[in-house]
Specification:
alpha+beta, 3-stranded antiparallel beta sheet, 4 helices, about 40% helix
């Protein structure tokens, strides 16, 4: 699947996703999300006992090698004006 800026379906979500939002987006259980994080398939980090997944890392998981680069997303979706 090739990434196109018009396809950006996560626009309504915050830049840092909690595990519940990841479950919602991927339509899988929380147990599966935690297993994918533990296995290193989805990159994440913990803050105050909360597991957070940056949107960019989720896009990298979804799109694989065709994933957008962080700098490209910042330019497209509001970082640089």
């Amino acid at each position: 699947m090739k990434f196109k800026p018009n396809d950006y379906f996560l626009k309504q979500y915050p830049d840092l996703l909690n595990t519940k939002e990841v479950c919602e987006i991927l339509r899988i259980s929380s147990k599966t999300v935690y297993k994918m994080i533990y296995d290193g398939k989805i990159k994440s980090f913990c803050v105050a006992r909360k597991t957070l997944v940056p949107k960019v890392y989720l896009l990298q998981y979804i799109y694989g090698k065709d994933a957008p680069k962080i700098d490209d997303l910042v330019k497209i979706y509001g970082g640089e004006k």
